[in-house]
Amino acid sequence: RRDFLMVFTVIFNNMEYNGSTLEVQGTDRFDQTQREYAVIGGTGKFRFARGYAVVTTESLSGQNSVLKFNTTLS
């Protein structure tokens, strides 16, 4: 079984959230098509953000994958 620690910084560049970020991290279990990561913070409009992201693998080809993030903030 292969598990990875995934850490993402999502940087927004649209007008309303320009320059704001979200920090997301969690254990990625490649044998699962859907898993949950923690939202552990952010900057700008998302300062002190908390929540979770349900991540779904949309496609997987060799070392490349497309992930879909459905994020809920509290």
From TrEMBL:
Keyword hit for Transmembrane: no
Name the domain of life.
Answer: Eukaryota
| Entry keyword annotation includes Secreted | yes
Cellular component terms, GO, for this chain's entry? apoplast
List the InterPro entries.
Answer: Allene_oxi_cyc_Dirigent, Dirigent
- Name where it's found: Secreted, Extracellular space, Apoplast
Q: Which UniProt keywords apply?
A: Apoplast, Secreted
A Gene Ontology biological process noted in the UniProt record is: phenylpropanoid biosynthetic process
Q: Which Pfam families match?
A: Dirigent
Task: Identify its protein family.
Answer: Belongs to the plant dirigent protein family.
Question: What does the function comment of this entry state?
Answer: Dirigent proteins impart stereoselectivity on the phenoxy radical-coupling reaction, yielding optically active lignans from two molecules of coniferyl alcohol in the biosynthesis of lignans, flavonolignans, and alkaloids and thus plays a central role in plant secondary metabolism.
Q: How does it assemble?
A: Homodimer.
Protein's name according to its UniProt entry:
Dirigent protein
Q: Which organism is it from?
A: Pinus radiata
